[in-house]
Input
Amino acid sequence: MKDILIIYDSVFGNTAKIAQSMAYALEVHHEVDIRLVGEVFPEHLDGVKTLIVGSPTRQFKATGALDQFLKQVPAGTLEGIQVAAFDTRMTPEDVSKNKFLALMVMFFGYAAEKIAKQLILLGGKEVVSPQGFLVTGIEGPLVEGELARAADWVLKIINNA
Ligand SMILES: Cc1cc2nc3c(=O)[nH]c(=O)nc-3n(C[C@H](O)[C@H](O)[C@H](O)COP(=O)(O)O)c2cc1C
Output
């Protein structure tokens, strides 16, 4: 049984790289289980002390698969578990190229905040603010430095716990 579980979804591979960078950073001192959302079931949460969940932002929220997974987790399951949420998203520069998109983003935001709300509703205790990591365009690659930023962010979770 691993103390830390990272669950992620990824379409073009960028969120997978961010999740993997987090796992490498944590593995120095912790036992980490990292799983694509399709390969995780509620029983994988048994014994987990810290749960980190991430998704690409797709139409201002998480992917359908990640959303569905969180919806089938029974209420209260995350009681006593530290939780943190992240997403990948377009750069502010790319968003601002399209005025309509910029307005929609202003109103509807990104996936990480919504994932965090779901985790808290399930009983989780948020230990750091949700975080977004930037991709170039739609398919990436990740903006330079984002893998290192992901590693730094995830270590804050453990240090705040
Ligand atoms: C259908 C679709 C919808 C998207 N919606 C958003 C969005 O609402 N906000 C945003 O910042 N990026 C959006 N993006 C860009 C994705 O966030 C980007 O493709 C993703 O971060 C890449 O991660 P992945 O490689 O793990 O799939 C969208 C991309 C696609 C293809």
Summary: The domain at 4-160 is CATH 3.40.50.360 (Rossmann fold). The chain has six helices and six strands. Residues 10-15, 56-60, 88-90, 110, 135, 138-140 surround flavin mononucleotide (CB under 6 Å). Residues 146-160 form the longest helix (15 residues).
